[in-house]
Amino acid sequence: MTISSCTLGPTVSAQRTNDSLHITVGGSWSLNGMVPEEELARARKMAQDEGIRRLVLDTKDLGSWDGLLLGFVTDIEKPARRRKIEIEENLPESLRKLLRLAFAVESREGSEKAKKQEGFLAWLGGSAIAIPKQMHNFLVFLGDIAFSVCRLVRGKAAMRRQDLVDALFECSLRSFGIVAITNLLFGLILAFVGAVQLSNFGAQIYVAGLVGIGMLRVMGAVMVGIVMSGRIGASYAALIGTMQVNEEVDALETMGISPTDFLVLPRMLALVIMVPLLTIFADLMGMVGGFLVGITILDLSPLQYIQSTISMVQFKHGIAGLVYATVYGIVIAVFGCYHGMQCKRSAQGVGQATTTAVVHSLVGIIVTTAIITVIFNAISF
C-alpha cells in the first residue's frame, strides 16, 4: 500500500512491504505553510500497525524544515520504539540529533494523558505495593516535624513570626462565619432530634443537657474539624503543592532553609492554637441553636433552659472537647502539609494533593475520635 502527497509544501510517501514500512518525506516543512493533514494522519496510522517489524525513514528532495517535520517523525518513531522494532534512519544529521534529544528523556508523569486505562486489579496491586513507601515517607515527615518542634523550643527554627500571624488570621477571623452557621444549625438539628423522643415522655427539659453535653464533649470539635479540613487543610495542600510545582521548596533547601520549619511549622501551630478556640465558639453557637428550639418549640422558659444546661453539663465535658479539638488541629495540619510536600510536579498533581489531603484529614478525624472516645470511656472521663 502506498500513499503520497504532491504539494508545494511537505510531501510524505508511505509504502508497506510485508512487515516493513518505508516512509519518505520531502518538500518544504513549515508550521506556517500548507499541511496535508489527511496524508500525515494516514502515515501515522500505518506506523502504529502492530504487524510492522521494520521501519525505514528516508528523505527525498527535502527542502527547509522546522518543528513540523520533527513532530511528525517523532510521532512515527514513538510506537516503533515502544514495540522495540528495527528502525533505519536516512535523515539529515541535524534532524537525527534532535530526535536523539527528544527520546533521551522520558516524559514527566502527568505531562500527557494516559492512552491506556489501568485495570482494577492492576490499580489494586500497584496501590498495595506503594503502601510501604508511602508509610515510610509519612513517618519521615513526622520525624521532620518532631525535629522542627525541638528546634523551635531551642529558638533555632527557621520560622518567621509574620507567617505564624498570617496563618492565625487565616484560621480565625476568616473562619468565624462558616463555623458559626454550621454549628448553630447543628445545635438546632440536635435539639429537634432529641425533642422527638423526649417529648413522648414529657422530658423536654433534658434537651438542654443533650445539646450541651453533645456539643461540648465532641460534636462541636468534630464540626470545626470538618470545616477546617475542607477550608484550611485543602488550602495548605494547594499552596505548598503549587510551591513544589514552581520549585520554590527546592529553592528553600538550596538556601539551607528547612521547608518544614518555614512552611509546615507555622501552619501547624496556627491550627493547634485556633481549632480549640474555634471549638469553644462552636460550642456556644450550638447551645444557642438548642436554646432557640427549647424556647420556641418546647415551650421552655429561657431561665429554665439555661439552669438545666448548667446543672447537667459538667466541666470535664468541655475539657474533653478541647482535647479532641487539639488533636484535630494536628491531624489537619499534618495531612494538609504532607500532601502538599508530596505533590507531583504538575497541575493535575496539585488537584490530587488537595483532594487527598481533605479525604485523609476527614478519615483521620474519624479514627482519632474513635480512639480518644475509647480511652475516655476506659478511664471514665
Strand order of the largest sheet: 1-2-3-4-5
The helix/strand order is EEEHEHEHHHHHHHHHH
Mean pLDDT: 85
Major sheet characteristics: 5 strands, mixed
What's the end-to-end separation, in Å? 84 Å
Characterization of the model:
The protein is α/β, with parallel strands linked by helices. The protein has twelve helices and five strands. It has a five-stranded mixed sheet, with helices on one face. β3, α1 and β4 form a beta-alpha-beta unit. α11 runs antiparallel to α12 (347-378). It starts with a strand and ends with a helix.
Essential attributes:
381 residues, 5-stranded mixed beta sheet, 12 helices
In short:
The chain has 381 residues and is α/β, with parallel strands linked by helices.
Topology:
Elements: E1 2-4, E2 10-17, E3 20-27, H1 37-47, E4 54-62, H2 67-83, E5 86-90, H3 93-102, H4 120-153, H5 161-171, H6 176-198, H7 206-245, H8 248-254, H9 259-296, H10 302-312, H11 315-341, H12 347-378
Parallel strand pairs: 3-4, 4-5
Antiparallel strand pairs: 1-2, 2-3
Helix pairs in contact: 1-2, 4-9, 5-9, 6-7, 6-9, 7-9, 7-10, 7-11, 7-12, 9-11, 11-12
